[in-house]
Amino acid sequence: MRQSVSVAAAVSLLASSASAQNMLRFACSQLVVDRVDPIVNPGQRYTPHLHQIVGGNSFNLTMEPVKYDPAERSTCTSCSFTQDLSNYWTAVMFFKHKNGSYMRVPQTGNGGPQGKLINDGGLDVYYMQQGKITSFKPGFRMIAGNAANTEDSKVSKANICHRCWNRPDENTFVGGAPCTGSDTVGIPSSKDCQMIRQTLIFPHCWDGKNLDSPDHKAHMAYGQGTGATGGGACPSSHPVKVPQVMYELMWDARKIDRSWWPESGNPYTYSMNIGYYSGAAAHGDYVFGWKGDSLQKAMDKQCNLNRDCPAAGLTAQTPEKYNACKIKQQAPEPVDGWLKAMPMGEMAIKA
């Protein structure tokens, strides 16, 4: 009995501290699912793997830094705040049926101690801070993770991780802080997972000069400390502390019928088609597109969660409003339902 009370108290304390942490936390619904990537493969249609994209509706094949400013070109955003016309994207998780066909794993918004987020697909975005923060600048972009990674051991679990959510309600708090405890780099393979939470934490230290770099990473660095804390002290090579950006995706395994499972192996894979190692290859892309100095004001005024913040001029849309912001595929192909193979190389074909 004492142990049960102790565990309950610990969970309650963790939940209350998470609720108290000051951060922007908001929903971004699916803008489009498409095989384009203006950072890694600018101008190319049918890129090597499929992405799910959220944010401003000016997202395009080629978004030349500085000249192509989403904040100026977009007329709507699939994210909660009207001032945020940035673009965020990740690889797509698929389920491989025992008959060899593939289906995109559906997504849902996350709940937990900070409240339910409502998503039409897409992901949840966090901007966390610890101490003095300098906002990103127009034209800024970065990547977390590496689509070519094939070994879990080469990935820091403190920055990229997965959690088996073994309860059927995404509002039920499961486990501790992101990328701690039993979280894994690889995608969990248990049939008991009701949902699979994916977390991508971006570096929070900038060199203060370059808006991008050839590998889209060298201008950024992880500072002291680990996990979703807002980021610790930065190294002298990258002295400018920027908001710690985190993506959170809830892959809804409740929609996967257990009769579809193969007799062995992990049926979950990301769209790079390298099986179990897709956990190690998880990655996210970011193109800054906040209007004017709205993000800097949001950090200075310590705006919180997904609520209006008059002190910084932030206004939150209703789910009906941001869910309605969509664009057409620029590399047209079927991505819904059962597919003969994951979209790679030639155009995808329905199963």
TrEMBL record:
The record, for Pfam families, names: DUF1996 (PF09362)
Lineage of the source organism?
A: Eukaryota, Fungi, Dikarya, Ascomycota, Pezizomycotina
Q: Does the keyword Signal apply?
A: yes
Question: What is the source species?
Answer: Cercophora newfieldiana
Q: Which residues form the DUF1996 domain?
A: 37-290
**Secretion signal: which residues?**
1-20
Keywords from UniProt, A to Z, are: Signal
**Stated name of the protein:** DUF1996 domain-containing protein
Superkingdom of the organism of origin: Eukaryota
